[in-house]
Design brief:
By secondary structure, the protein is an alpha/beta fold. Helices cover 46% and strands 13% of the residues. A four-stranded mixed sheet has the order 2-1-3-4. A four-stranded mixed sheet has the order 6-5-8-7, with helices on one face. Strand 5 and strand 6 form a beta hairpin. The chain starts with 6 loop residues before the first helix and ends with a strand.
C-alpha cells in the first residue's frame, strides 16, 4: 500500500512548485530554518537571507545578465541584487484615484515576495477585475445585468495565491467570468475588504461570493482554495439565468401565489378560468408530446462496445444521471429517459444544452430538438455531458 505523504513532504513539494529547479535538500534546509513555515521559507529563499539564497534565486530565475552588467553587486554579502520596477495596469470602469490605491494594495499584498518572477506567478487577474470600490462594482453588475463575483483574499493565507495561480488563470474560468460576471477582488487588510467581510460576516479567507447586484444578497459562497472544475460546475446556476431573469421568475411565482390566494378567498369563476388557462398554456408543449417507449438499456459487456454510447445528464436539482444507448437509437430517447427520472419533466417542456461553457457545438444549435430524427451516432453525442434546462 502506498504511503500517505506527511505534512513536511507536502510543504517541500509546495516549496519546489514555487522555487523551480531547486533540490529537495534545499527546500528542506529553508523550511527547517523557518520552523516549517512555507511563506517565511519562500520569503527567505528569494530575499537571500540564508546561506547564499540570493545567489540561488538569481541563478534559478536567470539574473546572470544583471550580474555581468553590474560586477560589483556581489562584492559584499550585505548588498542584494536590485529588483526591476514593476507597475500593474488595472482595467475597468471608474479608473483614477482608485487605480493608484489598488496598485498600493497589490504592492502590500505581494510585497513579501521579493522576486519579479514569483510576483508574476501569483499575480492577481488584473485583466478580469473591476477597478473600483465594492458599491460601484455592484452598480456595474446591475447595469450590465450580470452577477457580481467577489473574491476576498488574505496575504497570510497561501490559498489566496494559489487561487490566482490556478483558478483565475484558467482559460475556461476566465472566459466564464468575461461573459457572465463582474469580478471584484480585494484583500481583507484594506478598508474595502474589511467592509465586505463585516457586512457579509465572513469568518474565513480566502472566500468567493456570488452577489445579487440588485439586492446585494449573497447567493453562493466558497471557502479556501477552489479548483477550476468545481467553480465552473457550481457557477452554472448563475450562467443559466441573469439577475433580471432571476427576479422576474421570483415576481412571477409571487404573482401566481397571490392570484391563487385571491381565487380561494373570492371564489370567483372568472379567476379560476384565467389560472386554468395559464396553466394549460405552460404545459401545452409537453402534454401534447408522446415520447417514444424507452427500450432496455444495452449492456456493454454483452454486445460490441463500439455500438454503444454513454450520455451523462445534469439535472436542475443538481443530480447527475447517465445511461447507455445504442448509437443507432434516435436522440428522441433522451426526452423519454429524462421524463422518467425528473418529476418536473413529466409535465413541463425542457431542452438540453452543453454542460460546460465554450463554443456551441454544431448539433446543439441546429438539430437538437425533441422531434429530431438524428441518431446518437449522427449527433456526435457519444461520451458527452449535457444539462437539462426547463423552458
Amino acid at each position: 500500500m502506498a504511503s500517505v505523504p506527511s505534512s513536511q513532504d507536502m510543504l517541500i513539494s509546495s516549496f519546489l512548485d514555487i522555487a523551480v529547479d531547486q533540490t529537495v535538500d534545499t527546500a528542506r534546509e529553508f523550511l527547517q530554518a523557518t520552523n516549517w513555515s512555507l511563506e517565511e521559507a519562500i520569503q527567505r529563499f528569494f530575499s537571500g537571507n540564508n546561506n547564499g539564497g540570493a545567489e540561488a534565486a538569481a541563478e534559478s530565475f536567470n539574473y546572470s545578465p544583471l550580474i555581468e552588467e553590474n560586477p560589483t553587486l556581489w562584492e559584499s554579502d550585505d548588498v542584494r541584487l536590485p529588483l526591476p520596477v514593476r507597475r500593474e495596469v488595472l482595467y475597468g470602469e471608474n479608473s483614477g484615484l482608485y487605480e493608484d490605491e489598488r496598485e498600493q494594495i497589490s504592492s502590500s499584498t505581494f510585497g513579501s515576495y521579493d522576486n519579479n518572477t514569483l510576483s508574476v506567478l501569483f499575480r492577481p487577474p488584473y485583466e478580469l477585475l473591476y477597478n473600483g470600490p465594492f458599491d460601484h462594482a455592484k452598480e456595474a453588475g446591475a447595469k450590465r445585468n450580470r452577477w457580481l463575483l467577489v473574491n476576498v483574499q488574505s496575504r497570510s493565507e497561501f490559498a489566496s495565491d494559489t487561487l490566482n495561480r490556478d483558478t483565475w488563470a484558467n482559460d475556461i474560468v476566465a472566459q466564464m467570468i468575461e461573459n457572465n460576471f463582474v469580478f471584484w477582488q480585494e484583500g481583507d487588510h484594506t478598508e474595502e475588504g474589511r467592509k465586505v467581510c463585516t457586512y457579509y460576516k465572513l469568518d474565513s479567507r480566502p472566500v468567493i461570493l456570488v452577489i445579487d447586484p440588485i439586492t446585494g444578497q449573497n447567493m453562493r459562497s466558497w471557502n479556501g482554495m477552489v479548483q477550476p472544475e468545481t467553480l465552473l460546475e457550481d457557477a452554472m446556476t448563475f450562467i443559466d439565468r441573469t439577475p433580471l431573469e432571476y427576479h422576474s421568475d421570483l415576481l412571477r411565482k409571487q404573482f401566481d401565489r397571490l392570484t391563487h390566494l385571491d381565487r380561494i378567498e373570492e371564489g370567483t369563476e372568472e379567476k379560476e378560468k384565467e389560472i386554468t388557462s395559464e396553466e394549460e398554456n405552460d404545459q401545452n408543449e409537453n402534454t401534447n408530446t408522446i415520447y417514444l417507449p424507452l427500450p432496455e438499456e444495452p449492456n456493454r459487456s454483452l454486445i460490441d462496445k463500439k455500438m454503444v454510447c454513454r450520455i451523462a445528464i445534469r439535472l436542475p436539482d443538481g443530480r447527475r444521471i447517465q445511461r447507455n444507448f445504442m448509437k443507432t437509437d434516435p436522440i428522441k430517447l433522451l426526452w423519454s429517459f429524462c421524463s422518467t427520472q425528473f418529476e418536473e419533466a413529466k409535465t413541463k417542456a425542457f431542452r438540453f444544452r452543453q454542460a460546460m461553457p465554450g463554443p456551441t457545438k454544431f448539433w446543439a444549435s441546429n438539430f437538437w430538438t425533441c422531434d429530431s430524427n438524428l441518431t446518437f451516432e449522427e449527433s456526435g453525442l457519444d461520451n458527452s455531458v449535457i444539462a437539462l434546462v426547463m423552458i
